[in-house]
Design brief:
Blueprint (H helix, E strand, L loop, with lengths): L7 H13 L8 H12 L10 H17 L8
Length: about 80
């Protein structure tokens, strides 16, 4: 039996919030932030629910590095 995803609760809360708010992300910032906090607590790859947030974080780091003149790490 596989382990329960540690951030599944937050992922479900995001889905509920988006449905209630006609998929307007701006209305769900609080639950999105809770998901980011949850994902930050676990090693990359531990939560399948966090995969999109991990990609978002990589993109943010890449953008920050290039805006500071630091070349991005090799892929």
């Amino acid at each position: 039996m596989s382990q329960k995803d540690p951030c599944q609760k937050q992922a479900c809360e995001i889905q509920k919030c988006l449905q209630v708010n006609n998929y307007m992300e701006s209305k769900c910032e609080t639950v999105l932030q809770e998901m980011r906090k949850c994902c930050a607590q676990y090693p990359k790859g531990r939560s399948i629910c966090c995969s999109g947030f991990e990609k978002e974080e990589r993109e943010r780091e890449k953008f920050k590095a290039t805006s500071e003149g630091i070349p991005p790490p090799p892929q």
